[in-house]
Amino acid sequence: MDTFGNRNSYSKTDTDATFMRVKEDPMMNGQLKPAYNVQSAVRNQMVIGYDVFQNPTDARTLIPLVKKMNNAGTLGSVVVADMGYVSEANYRFFEDEMPEVTALIPYNTMLREASRKWRSDDSRVMNWSYDEKADEYTDNDGVVFKWRNYSHRTDKNGKARDFKVYRAEEKDENNQDIPAVYTKGGNVRQININPSWGYQKARMRESLSDETNASIYARRKIDNEPVFGRMKAHFGVGRFMVRGLRKVKIETGLVMMAMNMAIMAG
């Protein structure tokens, strides 16, 4: 367990490495391999910050990398990342601890929410009517969902989230049962609303609707993605040559530095 730490696996040939699903898989069978999660921050295809992590989840690497860059004085005024880095904790971090930094990180369903199909989907709570004064939702079948209780949940990474639980009213104004209230299994329908997450999503939609921010985000693919492509194709770095987290970080830093020098020389 001392070797595992907060991971769920490790390699016997490199106990610092964690088994991850990597893109290098010609058979497309999702094979697990001992690996490290390399993160880089790029500006105009120059690497201005990097770090190496033992966990495969990109969302959990954002805050440590941003803090490291901020301490080093290399963090810019805008942080751009793709949907893999979305989490309520990350959004809250930028709002509470770094309000001077603009974070442009679209959440997974942001583009789909603007589609006609999504807006016409009656099962989506965002398409229901909400009475703010009474604090109740009404779906398109006329079923009213009233607030019942709060729910506090903690995920496996220790991040807490608070939900408001709404329960459907089983009787109409004539005290008659409402068939649409029940699920197929015969249970009364409930919905869980996370006000904090809804607020954070609204802030991100507003931020990315700004033309300047949208143009900055549009540059992410041409700024960041080529870095790892050049590392593999031009520098021939397809895997690490050393073992152990400390040595892997040093090797990564040397490669990143060499790529920056190549850009400066070219």
Automatic annotation (TrEMBL):
<dbReference type="GO" id="GO:0004803">
    <property type="term" value="F:transposase activity"/>
</dbReference>
<dbReference type="GO" id="GO:0003677">
    <property type="term" value="F:DNA binding"/>
</dbReference>
<dbReference type="Pfam" id="PF01609">
    <property type="entry name" value="DDE_Tnp_1"/>
</dbReference>
<dbReference type="GO" id="GO:0006313">
    <property type="term" value="P:DNA transposition"/>
</dbReference>
<dbReference type="InterPro" id="IPR002559">
    <property type="entry name" value="Transposase_11"/>
</dbReference>
<protein>
    <submittedName>
        <fullName>Transposase DDE domain protein</fullName>
    </submittedName>
</protein>
<feature type="domain" description="Transposase IS4-like">
    <location>
        <begin position="10"/>
        <end position="261"/>
    </location>
</feature>
